[in-house]
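Hi team,

Filling in the usual template for the complex we talked about on Friday. All components are listed, including any nucleic acid strands or ligand strings, so the model treats them as one assembly.

SUBMITTER: L.P.
PURPOSE: interface mapping
COMPONENTS: two
RESIDUES: 230
SEQUENCES:
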Amino acid sequence: GAGVSQSPSNKVTEKGKDVELRCDPISGHTALYWYRQSLGQGLEFLIYFQGNSAPDKSGLPSDRFSAERTGGSVSTLTIQRTQQEDSAVYLCASSFSGGGTDTQYFGPGTRLTVL
Amino acid sequence: AQKITQTQPGMFVQEKEAVTLDCTYDTSDQSYGLFWYKQPSSGEMIFLIYQGSYDEQNATEGRYSLNFQKARKSANLVISASQLGDSAMYFCAMRGSDSWGKFQFGAGTQVVVTP
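RESULT (copied from the run log):
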């Protein structure tokens, strides 16, 4: 069965440009999560979508970061006016219901490099 | 607020030996879940094992077991009979009932299995 997919797998951009990262969750999963992983570091929570509820945006590091989820499925993470410190791997995960025992399934990530 | 602490940045273990990876956590939530993930050098995050805060039995999944000591707020991962393919980064994570979508990850422990 299809897992979580992310595109592009690699993105190189110039400082100041905007980028969009895409995540396709597992079909039927209502919860979707975005994380950032800097080199050699753990995962940093960014944002969480659960069904039609308002997303939990508490992890977004600045107002340059935004995310949306259309039709309860595909999600796009947008970073405006990219900075070099935005360079990281951006991981998306989905889970069936977002409940307590729910297991997240991760995508392969998008490696973002800001020059 | 939740906090996950993994104090071992790296470990070497001989093939066929058992290894224990430490994880301590801090939360004010009464209900929470604890997870362990494996991240090989390829980058994907692989779910290993889950322990709920109300589970009285320690979780086990094949060669993985979770040594859950609630009073000490620890959730150590034990890998028995290590294999070369176990070489990877291991992350402890938790989610709490105040925000089920907001996983908190530890900094990770790098495990290298030697022949």
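MY TAKE: Chain B touches chain A through 26 residues (CB under 8 Å). The first strand of chain B starts at residue 3 and ends at 5.

Thanks, L.
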